[in-house]
């Protein structure tokens, strides 16, 4: 199975512009990408990048400047092999979560994002094509049905959490260190697992803040 990670290399994460400068969005997107690539690799598979522009990354890179849907569909059209499409902003992804996705049988296996998106999928049916943005989860269910593919849906908090907006940064601060906390509670001698996106947010001065109704983030300038 190929594991393809689409990556907007130029001006990424524009919906985080109210929290991060342009350079910071690039640096944070790179940190999330590194976490995703490491988690994929820990499942025993080699990820490949499908990027809008050349990018220095620890994986082979194909540059395709077409919009996301077109670029991904070109990959699906060029191979009959199973292809996993894994987004680069899944900052909480773990090898276990990706393993559940990759190992699940089905012509099309979908890990929906909160809000109706498609954060990761596996396409085994040769005629299945993607249509991202909007409620792409529902669109992908319909597209799979149209080509007669059996669909499986992966119910995973870690794969459902893509980091798009300021409020999503709180998810990284809440859950991004939980494996390390568990590891240090049970196996004190083992090195602390590090998640680059969590480290980046912390070193940029972000921390959790809550009032009586909701949890968010604040930043020490
Ligand atoms: N190859 C490719 N990847 C893309 C493109 N647009 C987004 N991506 C990637 O697709 C995934 C989902 O991206 P989005 O959250 O929808 O878009 P984004 O550009 O990261 O962020 P926004 O600017 O806030 O919409 C991420 O891995 C992006 O890096 C594109 O046009 N081409
Ligand atoms: C790629 C797109 O991501 P979103 O714009 O929902 O973050 C989708 O999941 O269809």
TrEMBL record:
One of its GO terms (molecular function) is phospholactate guanylyltransferase activity. It catalyses: (2S)-2-phospholactate + GTP + H(+) = (2S)-lactyl-2-diphospho-5'-guanosine + diphosphate. It is an enzyme of class 2 (transferase). Pfam families: CofC. Gene3D superfamilies: 6.10.140.50, Spore Coat Polysaccharide Biosynthesis Protein SpsA, Chain A (3.90.550.10). Pathway: Cofactor biosynthesis; coenzyme F420 biosynthesis. Guanylyltransferase that catalyzes the activation of (2S)-2-phospholactate (2-PL) as (2S)-lactyl-2-diphospho-5'-guanosine, via the condensation of 2-PL with GTP. It is involved in the biosynthesis of coenzyme F420, a hydride carrier cofactor. PANTHER family: 2-PHOSPHO-L-LACTATE GUANYLYLTRANSFERASE. Homodimer. Belongs to the CofC family. This is 2-phospho-L-lactate guanylyltransferase.
